[in-house]
């Protein structure tokens, strides 16, 4: 290993210039990233590498607001000065298309060349939102939405998912996988809403006994997203590549879809045994999270369940449930590796063990 003292000595001896030494130091820090100083078995997670990335993210946000504001002003002036009514939806679609191209070029610099994590997430969000908004304006008709006909949003939704998929194939931003999963989820809900009515409450999305097929769609898509996340995790059990980060964001999307749908369905059932089955189910989810070594899956699952429990239901039973869940999370966080090592020794995993992170 070459230390910082070795680099300073190389500069003093004339072997390296100060610029070359600085570039080598920056490259080493970039390669370490979120995995530097991690304990054995800890789950890598990184949103940004330094304050400069936060600075650029704020700049990108302001730049996006300024760009769309200027485009709106120019569009208004064109309508006022020429004295004719332009097609607003087509114009907005063109502005969105130009914006998406500009965001692509910015991504080439900040993601491909600079390999920045925070700006990559910001650019992914801006690109996805811009493409989705532009396509919805181009394809959807106002009179269709006024009649609650959501079928006009299916095609732009599918095209938006395809556009983000192409963006991911080019830049491999892990956060884009979450956007793609959410896009597929939204398209499925829109397709269902066009046939079975509208979503009237959050309960329709997560309680299987609610109106329509929305909760069943949520559960099915959650299981599919979880399966894809496990494919990424299984291809990188030691979590040293970006495939692990892809799986991380997919687990964050899959957990609320799967766990909340089943857990809140138990909570909606007033039978006394439903609470027992809920405890058994949450225990099974905790077991799965420990075996696959994904704290993110368990945290997202319990976090969304707690938030929606207070939103949809009330009563002392919910308060006690939240207290127990919080205590369980603290204990698991403190003893995660010890518990996981014992569980992996007891379970007859066989060849499946090679697709799982090793126990430490």
Structure characterization notes:
The chain is mainly alpha-helical and 360 residues long. It has 2 domains: 43-196, no CATH class; 199-360, no CATH class. 76% of the residues lie in helices and 0% in strands. It has helices spanning 4-12, 18-32, 51-82, 88-113, 117-139, 142-146, 154-171, 175-196, 202-206, 214-235, 242-268, 272-292, 295-312, 316-346. Helix 5 (117-139) packs antiparallel against helix 7 (154-171), helix 10 packs antiparallel against helix 11 and helix 11 (242-268) runs antiparallel to helix 12. It is flat.
Features:
2 domains; 360 residues
Shape: flat
Structural class: mainly alpha
What is the count of β-strands? 0
Strand content: under 5%
Between the first and last Cα atoms, what is the distance in angstroms? 25 Å
Uncertain stretches:
142-147
Order of helices and strands: HHHHHHHHHHHHHH
**Biggest sheet statistics:** none
Assembly type of the shown chains?
single chain
Radius of gyration: 24 Å
Number of domains: 2
Portion in helices:
over 70%
Whole-number mean pLDDT: 79
Number of helices: 14
Reconstruct the topology from this structure.
Layout (H helix, E strand, L loop, with lengths): L3 H9 L5 H15 L18 H32 L5 H26 L3 H23 L2 H5 L7 H18 L3 H22 L5 H5 L7 H22 L6 H27 L3 H21 L2 H18 L3 H31 L14
Helix pairs in contact: 3-5, 4-5, 5-7, 7-8, 8-10, 8-11, 10-11, 11-12, 11-13, 12-13, 13-14
Brief characterization of the structure:
76% of the residues lie in helices and 0% in strands. It is mostly helical. Residues 142-147 have low confidence and may be disordered.
